[in-house]
Amino acid sequence: MTLRQKLLLMFSLTVIGVVAAVAWTVSLRVRGVFEGLDREQTTALVTQFQREFDAHAADAAATVERLAASDELQRLAFSFSNGGDTAPYLTIAAPLAQQYRLDDLELVSRDGNIISSAQWPARFGYREPAISALGKPAFLKLEDMPDGSSQIGLFAVRTVTGSSPPLYLVGGRQLDADFLRDFPAPPGTQVYLYRNLTDSFDPDNFTGPAQLPPGAAQFGQLVNAARSSARNATGIVYLTRHREDSVNATAIPLKGANNSVLAVLVIANSRRGMVEVQRHIRDISLSVAAIGILITVAASLWIAARISAPIEELARAASQVAAGQWDTRVDIRARDEVGVLARSFNHMTHELVTQRDRLVQSERVAAWRELARRLAHELKNPLFPLQITVENMTRARKLPRIQFDEVFAESTATLQAELANLKAIIARFSDFSKMPDPKLERMDARDALRRVVSLYGPALEEKKIDVGTSITADQLIVLADAELFHRALSNLVLNAMDAMAEGGTLTVSASRSMDTARIGIADSGPGLTEEEASRLFTPYFTTRQHGTGLGLAIVQSIIADHRGRIFVERPDNGGARFVVVLPLANLLLAAESKT
Amino acid sequence: MLPRSVTKLAFSGLLTAALLSSVAAHARTRPHYGGTLRVETVGDAWQLPDGLARRLTLDTLTTINESGQAEPALATRWESGNADHRWEFQIRPGVRFHDGSPLTADTVVAALDLTCQPVAATCLWRTLHAVGPSIILTTDSPTPDLPELLAQTKFAISQQDAASPTDGTGPFRLTGFANGALTLVANDDSWQGRPFLDSIEIYPHRSIRDQWLDLSVGRADVVEVPPEMLRQAEQQHLAVLVSRPVDLLSLAVTPQGPLASLQMRQSIALAVDRASISNVIFQKQGEVTASLLPAALSGYSFLFPANLDLDRARTLRGGASTAPLTLATEDTSAAMQLAAERIALNLHEAGFTVLATPGAHPPAPLVLRRDHLEAASPRAALDELLARFGQNGTVTGTDPAALYQSEQAALVNGAIVPLLWLPRDWAAGERVRDLRLSPDGIPLLAGASLEGAP
């Protein structure tokens, strides 16, 4: 991942995180505010409903009182007081109830037996225990009906005015759908009545002004809470899995004369509007956030580009420096830390170039000195015999001809031999200076190694050097110049042979390590000191009496030209081990194709 | 001193005035011919058991007199043989149907045969055929009360060959149904003589309230008075005709399913508070009964206990839980529905769960019935009632002991729980004269006349 991508990612994540945090906080706050308002509205509705309920109760009681004071019932009571038969009045309750808009009405004699019942005319003669609540405010009562059902109503018990013995009136209004419909419910608010007829919650016991919602069973928990605690229970009821189909519900237990919960009034205030507003706000917030994020990402791109561009320039310049272009410079005019870095970089490359030139110059001088020393050393050996020979020939002019001729012949032979020696020395130096460019081709490194071992087999045998091989069975295809590679390996084998003048063991190996071919050539000679090992590949460095010090330098040069590397190891059991590491052809070709 | 001539003149005048006033007084008591009588009913005018129009257009072989005995009608005489297994009825000669065709023994046989269809098992006779002017009936068991049984309206003779089965020999003939009224006009050639009324309009399916309203404003002459409203009718000073108890209110219990146990059925019979139903719902117009025949007919009705015994009912029922029972009412009138609800309440006290539902529900295990009784003699009445309850031929004798045993045998399995006997009441307008009720409480409109008719 590039710096620019990292910066972009960092900026984007930061912005997204901040936006998300802000959006979440706002959403939470908005939801809290709305739900608070909703709760307040529900509380207000509950208070209103309770007032309405109390008003209905008072109205029911007032109606019964008005009926008790009516002339018709006073005449009836008078008739009864004079021993009149009650049977003819079996059906009088129904029209009276209709006239006074009461759902339930019973005329009860002084002994507590029903004379006439509007809601269940067949109950005449049965006892009505509710007369014990005479004079009390309207109360809730569970009333059995002829069809086997039970209705809950608001009842009041009064005596007919002036009746003696008392003629009781037990009248009331049922808490049915019509009753609930009378409540002034605002839009979105529904009022249901749950009749507490069964021990466990049963949705069929619900009565409502309209058709019950499909998820009426979901009210169970709330209703049960109100039933068991006999206190108001409030909560959100989800009617379906959709959030908008939820209501803020309050369950109000309605108690009877004996303080038992006869019914539960459920006020359900729809949350649909609130949820839709919340959703609308959320959608707007998300849109704004998305646009903000997009803008921020674009800005981040620009900022990241601004920040990373000089660094990328520096990185590119550093790569060029690493590739050897030490005179690389960056053109950055920033005045911040990056500008300082750029100026330091330019200063560094300038110093590098200066140091390199200085080093090259000093190395060149050193090389020339070494070359001169070597040349002097190499040339001194043949020159001394030449000088002696020439001096002998000079002295021999004074000898008789025959002797002179002998000396002359011997001297010229010596001169020619030494001159040939000089030529050879010069040729080796010439070869080193004229190292050709390798012509790379695919070849198996194992074959090259086997060929060298085979070539020097007789010589090794002559020098009583045993050969040990450890060559992998896998192919080790490398890109190499066959001749140069062979030359390098030959030099290494010859170098090992030189190290084992008294015989020994030559161990050659070839193996694959990662994506490289690893070739080892080890001798069992006297080994190398640490200093020798460190300088071994320096041109003109040699540990031998007559070595030029160019052999291993040539080997290193060849291996380097093959994009490989060579190093020497000092095994614990003695000797030296040269290791050549070459990249395998596939990897190399892949890398080249990539570049 | 007045002159003799003046005295004679005054005497003559007084005599003439007395004579004229006597003639006028006689004219007020004599029925007038003509006029249209308007009758309103809750039920259908043709269908049984009332069948007001049927009774006016069709005649039966016999009729029942006030004492409950059979009298000649289309049959002039009858005699039995073979220990009441064979009966011969002589058909009245010279009688013609409304279309002019003569009444013959063959037409009588054809009409009676029709009454046995489609269920032959309910037939009173085994064979029936015409022999000259007579018809011969044979029965499997002695049927001493066959003349009384043939007086039932369902055995009325109609013209089977005519296009309309309403053609009979009765004092009125049906002319049509228009504007909600069934119109019948007087049959001038009736064998009983022409009726006083020219025509009768019967308005069926009228509520009691509407009937009374029409009576009060003169739009109706004869209306029904349910027993439970008799007191109101009297309070409104209506001229009410009250019959003897002719309607049996009973509870039919299906002796199968949830009530297969005899103890359960006995429990039901003991749990019903007949007195409350009679005294309150039917305003003391009913006669509490646990027997099929009313006390006036049988004399032994008191032998069947009709008292409420809730404790014993609970004991008989035991603690077994039964599924909710349905109590259906064939008669959907308010009083009957109220009675059904009261019975349901009574049974609830005994531990039953009963739901009273209006209308006939054949599979209902409990049905509150109201059966009309036409017969006026004990044996005929018992036969008629047992036939209604699907227990034909169980009456084996004519003496009260035999009747009692037959009745006890019919009631012993608890499938029939008699509750009340109720009368039939009718109210007539001021211009209606000479209106009487038949022994089974149906107005004898053919004998009525209208005051002030032209």
Strand fraction of chain B equals 15-25%
Major sheet description of chain B: 7 strands, mixed
The radius of gyration over CA of chain A amounts to: 58 Å
Low-confidence stretches of chain B: 22-27
Q: How would you classify the helix and strand content of chain B by structural class?
A: alpha+beta
Spatial separation of the terminal alpha carbons of chain A: 19 Å
Q: Give the count of helical stretches of chain A.
A: 14
CATH class category name of the largest domain in chain B: Alpha Beta
CATH architectural group of the largest domain in chain A: 2-Layer Sandwich
Oligomeric state of this protein: heterodimer
Number of domains of chain B: 3
**Overall spatial form of chain A:** rod-shaped
Rg from Cα of chain B? 26 Å
Q: Largest interface, counted with CB-CB under 8 A?
A: A-B, 13 and 18 residues
Name the beta content range of chain A: 15-25%
CATH architecture of the largest domain in chain B: Roll
CATH topology of the largest domain in chain B: Dipeptide-binding Protein, domain 3
Overall pLDDT metric of chain B: 87
Find the CATH topology of the largest domain in chain A: Heat Shock Protein 90
Secondary-structure blueprint:
The complex is a heterodimer of chains A (595) and B (454).
Chain A: H1 3-68, H2 71-81, H3 93-99, E1 104-108, E2 114-117, E3 139-144, E4 150-159, E5 168-174, H4 177-181, E6 189-195, E7 206-207, H5 220-229, E8 233-238, E9 246-255, E10 261-270, H6 272-322, H7 337-396, H8 401-433, E11 441-444, H9 445-455, H10 457-462, E12 465-471, E13 477-480, H11 482-499, E14 504-513, E15 516-523, H12 530-535, H13 551-561, E16 565-569, E17 576-583, H14 585-594
Parallel strand pairs in A: 12-14
Antiparallel strand pairs in A: 1-2, 1-5, 3-4, 4-5, 6-7, 6-10, 8-9, 9-10, 11-13, 14-15, 15-17, 16-17
Chain B: H1 4-29, E1 36-40, H2 52-57, E2 62-64, E3 70-72, E4 75-81, E5 86-91, H3 105-115, E6 127-131, E7 134-138, H4 146-149, E8 172-178, E9 181-186, E10 199-203, H5 208-216, E11 222-225, H6 230-235, E12 239-253, H7 262-271, H8 274-281, E13 287-288, H9 295-298, H10 310-317, E14 325-329, H11 334-349, E15 354-358, E16 366-372, H12 378-388, H13 400-411, E17 416-428, E18 432-433, E19 449-450
Parallel strand pairs in B: 1-10, 14-15, 14-16
Antiparallel strand pairs in B: 2-3, 4-5, 5-7, 6-7, 8-9, 9-10, 11-17, 12-16, 12-17, 13-17, 18-19
